[in-house]
């Protein structure tokens, strides 16, 4: 049964949390504990962002840094959790605290009322409205795979996401990108028997941008020619059978590379539409929502931002991860309840300087 205190009215609640990723859920648990009435909606399943990672992808953060709501995240082999373990963990948290998440309900508009807001969401059955006083946007920042903007990018053999590696067995695959996602995909596909090549704009792979356990292996495979790397190149045209690469700054060696499949793993972009519709100011290169960092409230009084959504589109300089967003929850709860919350000191510990994407 749902554990929504104060109000059971579907059309009215104090707070609407948009996004049931780890931070939205952590906030939902905190509101439950503090008896703040809320509804939580997600455009997809709970943990939607993690659900589209390739099977068995591991977090680079340690388990204690990505656990939420005080619930320990334990793996049977003491390793960092993978996608499946973490999704299981999120389901356990939701069950334990009886959080009723309204899944597959995309919020498409936030309209101001005389007092508070009307949050408009869409399902396949039509639109629903919820009136509330406060909205928290915990919508993350990985909404769309970034596009190359070249001819052939919409062909069926081109994908911006790594999916089940097995499907690439025996295939010639060109991977575009040179950071964690691209390197991890290159290694996984090599290990399932794909013939992998890599096109990267950079002069070489940077040890600083790649998980420490992947870097030695990828550099060894490139050195031995088992993975062919085309550094300082970028695709200019994709066809069903090959990719045309051109050199970047006339330094790399362009040419035609045979490829049955192309994976463009060059990062992700945040969908700004909800921020824009709600009148939230965005700033800087990443178009980050502007907030008061002590309260997490935006320029629109009553609308807050929590989690990695705060970073906007993290193009190359990744600074916000789940592991350093827990304190957003504390700040919002303190603001709404007037009670200081014991701070989550995990956020002040040193971050692992690795980016999930290019
Ligand atoms: C391969 C990979 C590996 C990663 N490894 C790490 C790691 O090791 N450590 C780390 O800290 N981070 C890692 N990340 C990043 C990680 O995904 C984020 O740190 C984490 O998901 C952020 O949590 P969040 O709750 O802020 O946002 P999200 O998990 O992105 O949750 C946002 C939620 O909002 C929902 N939503 C968005 N828009 C709407 C809308 N309009 N209406 C309703 N719902 C909406 C989405 O469906 C989603 O469920 C990795 C990412 C990738 C791709």
How would you summarize the topology of this molecule?
Elements: E1 12-18, H1 22-33, E2 38-41, H2 48-51, H3 63-66, H4 83-96, E3 101-102, E4 106-112, E5 117-123, E6 126-137, E7 144-145, E8 158-159, E9 172-176, H5 180-191, E10 195-200, H6 215-223, E11 228-231, E12 233-238, E13 242-247, E14 255-258, E15 261-264, E16 268-269, H7 273-278, E17 282-283, E18 288-289, E19 303-305, H8 326-337
Parallel strand pairs: 1-2, 1-6, 2-3, 6-19, 8-15, 9-10, 9-15, 10-11
Antiparallel strand pairs: 4-5, 5-6, 7-16, 12-13, 13-14, 17-18
Helix pairs in contact: 1-8
Bound molecules: flavin-adenine dinucleotide.
Structure description:
The radius of gyration is 22 Å and the shape is globular. Strands 1, 2, 3, 4, 5, 6 and 19 form a seven-stranded mixed beta sheet that branches. Strands 8-15-9-10-11 form a five-stranded parallel beta sheet, with helices on one face. With 358 residues, the chain is of the alpha/beta class. Mean pLDDT is 92; it is low at 1-8 and 350-358. Strand 1, helix 1 and strand 2 (38-41) form a beta-alpha-beta unit. The protein has helices at residues 22-33, 48-51, 63-66, 83-96, 180-191, 215-223, 273-278, 326-337; strands at 12-18, 38-41, 101-102, 106-112, 117-123, 126-137, 144-145, 158-159, 172-176, 195-200, 228-231, 233-238, 242-247, 255-258, 261-264, 268-269, 282-283, 288-289, 303-305. It is built from eight helices and 19 strands. Helix content is 20%, strand content 24%. The chain folds into two domains: 12-144 and 268-348, FAD/NAD(P)-binding domain (3-Layer(bba) Sandwich), CATH 3.50.50.60; 147-264, FAD/NAD(P)-binding domain, CATH 3.50.50.60. Flavin-adenine dinucleotide (FAD) binds at residues 18-24, 41-44, 48-50, 53, 57, 59-61, 66, 106-107, 138-140, 142, 181, 274, 307-309, 321-323, 325, 356.
